[in-house]
Amino acid sequence: MEETRTLETALEVAQxxxxxxxxxxxxxxxxxxxxxxxARERVQRLSMAVYSLRDVLAAQGVDPGQLPRVSVQFFGxxxxxxxxxxxxxxxxETAPVEGHQSMEREPLSTTDRAVAILADAGRPMxxxxxxxxxxxRGWVNPRWKTPDAAITMAFHRARKAGRVGRMLDGSWVxxxxxxxxxxxxxxxxxxxxxGEK
Length: 197
Prior knowledge:
Number of helices: 5
Structural class: mainly alpha
Order of helices and strands: HEEHHHEEH
Helix content: 55-70%
Number of strands: 4
Mean pLDDT: 75
Strand order of the largest sheet: 1-2
Largest sheet: 2 strands, antiparallel
Distance between the termini: 94 Å
C-alpha cells in the first residue's frame, strides 16, 4: 500500500513537471517566433533601402555589381541583405541592367522563367509587371484557363524552392545567393567558350 502511494506521488510530481516544461516550451517558441519576425522585418526593410541606393548609384553611372554582396538564410527562405538595388516602381522599364547578361534562352520550367525575368530586370518587380513581361516573352500557355493565376503560382513555387524572394511591399526579388549562382554559371560558360577555337 505504501509503495502504491509512493508511486502515485511520483506520478503526480512527474505530471506537474511535464506541464511546467510544456508551458516553458510554448513560451520559448513564442519568444523565438517574435525575435525571428522582428529580425526578418529588419532585414527586409534594410533590403528595400539598399535596393533604393543601388538605383541612385546606377543613375550616377556607378556599377552596383562591383559592390560586396552578403546573403542571410532564415529557416530555408533566402533574403537579400546587402544587395543594393531599386525599390519596385522606381524604375518601371524591364530592360536588363547595364552590363547584365540576359537569361532569355528559353528556360525549361516555370520556375526557371520566374528566375529569368527577375535576373534580366536586375531589380524588384511587382506581379503586374511580372505578368506583363511573361506575356511579352510569349510564355503564356494558351491552354491555361487563368494565366494570371498560373504565373502567380509559378513565382510562389519558385519562392518555395528558394529561387526567388518577396519583400515586405509585395515585390518579388532575386536572392543574392541565386544571383551569385547565375553569375558563376555565366563565368563558367565564358571560360568554357573562351577555350574553344
